[in-house]
Amino acid sequence: MLRAAQAARGAGTRTGAAIAVVLKGYPRLSETFIAQELLALERRGLSLALYSLRMPTDHATHPLHAEIRAPVTYLPEYLHQALRRVWRAWRVARRLPGYPAALAAWRRDLRRDFTRNRVRRFGQALVLASELPPEVGHVHAHFLHTPASVARYAATMRGLAWSCSAHAKDVWTLPEWEKREKLAASAWTTTCTACNADHLRGLAGARKDVELVYHGIDVARFPPPQRAHADRNGDDTAHPATILAVGRAVDKKGFDDLLRALALLPPALHWRMVHVGGGPLLPRLASLARELGIDDRVRWLGPQAHAAVLDAYRGADAFVLPCRVGDDGDRDGLPNVLLEAQSQRVACISTCVSGIPELIVDGVTGLLVEPREPAALAEALARLIRDPSLRRTLADAGYERTTTEFSLQAGADRLAARFAACLASR
Fold first, then answer.
1. Which of 367, 362, 366, 322 is nearest to 343 (CA)?
2. C-beta neighbour count of 367 within 10 angstroms
3. For the residues 258-287, what does the mean pLDDT come to?
4. What is the pLDDT averaged over residues 365-375?
5. Distances from the Cα of 66 to the Cαs of 18, 32, 347, in angstroms?
6. CA pair distance 124, 110, nearest whole angstrom
7. DSSP string across 207-249
8. Are 338 and 316 in contact (CB under 8 A)?
9. What b-and-e string marks burial along 71-81, b requiring 16 or more CB atoms within 10 Å of the CB?
10. Which of 93-107, 224-238, 316-330, 351-365 has the lowest mean pLDDT?
11. Which of 27, 129, 138, 163 has its CA 20 to 30 A from that of 256?
């Protein structure tokens, strides 16, 4: 591993080659796991060029984004708003040697998915292929759905290999035919949970390369707290136990299940809940809290900068993320917020969904309940609130597991070695 990492550190500067990274949106607070990976690759000597399919919508950015040196190019989010740019791109791209193959692949996809989004992907790929600088030697996409489509079409036009990092929604909501064809066309694919990897390997076949690479936690950005957590046990009105939830307000996070569980807690148990994050369901969740009669105990902080989130972890007695499979099949992989909470020695409660049991061992490094079970979640919450000793035991075990078995460095070394090999082969 050390030898591979050393090779990666010299690859970008030695060959002058760069990797084009295709992202759905950049920068995004909800995708800091991507930002920490990009920065880790740069620190290993790799040269990156970022291409975003969407303009940023978050009002704040993470400190990681300021440290990333790679230039960002925004592809036209809506083709009709950049007709001249798309037209110029087509005039260049149609002369590229791989254009006929890319056009044929897109037409096959369009017949099975006759949507404006599919047309937009090809237009964005035209722009990407025409504007890629000559030093780009490999194309990589984050997410197997839209970004991988654009990366695939553009790389084919330019005669470049491409690869992909698959995460969560893209793994579980994409049609099977599309996953199979992208896995077959890509040079290699990584994904962030064992259950994702098993699913994709089943579709890809034995000869295709699908590797499990956890995102991991950067312990330098999440140093352990300097003081022990309080011994609040819910019996003091003036000092209620603090329950923290961090994540976008979307269906798969199950925050409505959390509110219903909180409403089931015994009246004599004193608590407050703090939520950090944006998302489209925030107004509905606030309304549900009022309906349940618990809105006076719930605070909605919205998206917060890194320092504020770190403070929220350090002030929490328990962290809860009641993930579930959404009605459309969408689900989390292994939410980074669980790693972050455990890095701050906060006892965690979550659900038996996707890759979460790969991190949390029930009763050892945290508590797990079945998804969509508010009564079971309420029981676990009451148990942690009443028992500070149990919280400390779980928090310490979770901290040890997260900071040793789920560190950022090992995964970044493996990815850097992958990219170094791709650039060397060019």
1. 366
2. 24
3. 97
4. 98
5. 20, 12, 31
6. 15
7. TS-EEE----B-TTTSPPPSSPPP---S--TTSPEEEEEES--
8. no
9. ebebbbeebee
10. 224-238
11. 27
Q: What is the mean pLDDT of residues 183-191?
A: 95
DSSP state of 407: B
Alpha-carbon span 72 to 422, nearest angstrom: 22
Position 3 confidence tier, pLDDT thresholds 50, 70, 90: very low
Q: Please tell me the pTM assigned to this model.
A: 0.83
Q: 195-226 pLDDT, tens per residue?
A: 999 999 999 986 679 999 998 898 888 998 88
Which letter, b or e, does each residue of 36-62 get, where b requires 16 or more Cβ atoms within 10 Å of its Cβ?
bbbbbbbebbbbbbbbbbeeeeeeebb
3-state secondary structure of 137: strand
Q: Which of 155, 104, 106, 108 has the alpha carbon at shortest distance from 129?
A: 155
Using one digit for the tens of pLDDT, what is the confidence trace for 36-57? Answer: 999 999 999 999 999 999 998 8
Closest C-alpha among 33, 79, 31 to residue 58:
31
